[in-house]
Specification:
Blueprint lengths: L10 E5 L4 E5 L24 H20 L6 E6 L5 E6 L5 E4 L5 E2 L4 E2 L6 E2 L2 H13 L7 E3 L7 E7 L4 H8 L1 H6 L2 E7 L7 H8 L4 H9 L13 H11 L6 E4 L4 E3 L4 H9 L1
Parallel strand pairs: 10-11
Antiparallel strand pairs: 1-2, 3-4, 4-5, 5-6, 7-8, 9-11, 10-12, 12-13
Helix pairs in contact: 5-6
Length: about 270
């Protein structure tokens, strides 16, 4: 379930590391609508009843607009950002978006703050908090776990796909990663329906690690079916905004990057 450009008339934003390009459906003859003018602290938490009511009205407005535009989306949560009258919206089964306070425009992608030595993603803390809850709900037995050697210093969650070349490259360095005290927990995220059977075969194998190693090496796996979490894990990735593999997250739900060398991964975890 995802937004398509043909359906998403309200607004769209494509963010690169240095620039944001936004497009919106403007109507010069459209009547001016009343604006929800709630302001909230940078934490994203509504500080009083008036603000909570304003956020609820925004949720209701967005749901009405989605229904009118035939967009099948459900708002799970909404929080204020540091940008005046711009809210972060957590949606079921798809990446989060931003919405203006009047509910007339939504923005897909990242909103970046300039002015410091580093570019700051204004929703990073909000998205990370949501990710942390989702990752905490995973059962270890549903994952493919490569334990750290010696004392476990860090745990990372990696959305992976056996058909992904960069996942292969990351997996080649598993022993080096584990040697740095990093435990890797793989989450199944087939990048397309055609890759679903291979991931299910891995997850349904008696020796999941051996099957994954075999698939990564390019050796076909015997088809296997069972009650497995692959589709649910794929949906989890969509909820967290995953759009490619590998996608690496720390325990706090912070996105660390795609493919990283063992040294780069350790550096990001230690910073």
């Amino acid at each position: 379930m995802s937004f398509t450009r043909s359906k998403l008339f309200i607004a769209c934003t494509l963010a690169s590391s240095l620039a944001i390009t936004a497009c919106s459906n403007s109507n010069n003859d459209e009547k001016k609508q009343s604006t929800l003018t709630a302001s909230a602290p940078a934490t994203g938490q509504a500080s009083n009843l008036s603000e909570r009511n304003a956020q609820q009205r925004l949720i209701n407005t967005l749901q009405q607009h989605f229904k009118k535009a035939n967009i099948n989306a459900k708002v799970l949560d909404i929080k204020a950002t540091e940008v005046p009258n711009l809210y972060w919206v957590n949606l079921e089964g798809m990446s989060s978006v931003y919405a203006t306070a009047d509910g007339k425009y939504i923005i897909q992608g990242d909103v970046l703050r300039l002015g410091d030595s580093k570019i700051h993603n204004v929703s990073e803390n909000l998205q990370s908090a949501a990710n942390k809850k989702l990752l905490a709900g995973l059962k270890t037995e549903d994952l493919l776990v490569y334990k750290a050697q010696g004392k476990t210093k860090h745990i990372v969650y990696v959305f992976t796909d056996v058909s992904c070349p960069y996942c292969h490259k990351l997996h080649e360095h598993m022993s080096e990663i584990n040697a740095k005290g990093i435990e890797v927990r793989y989450i199944a995220w087939p990048r397309g329906e055609q890759f679903m059977p291979a991931m299910e075969s891995v997850w349904c194998s008696e020796d999941r690690q051996a099957a994954f190693n075999q698939a990564i090496a390019g050796t076909p796996l015997a088809p296997a079916t069972c009650k497995n979490p692959v589709k649910n894990q794929y949906q989890l990735g969509l909820n967290m905004g995953v759009n490619g593999t590998p996608a690496i997250y720390n325990e706090e739900g912070v996105y660390l990057g795609g493919y990283l060398s063992p040294e780069e991964l350790a550096e990001r975890l230690n910073n």
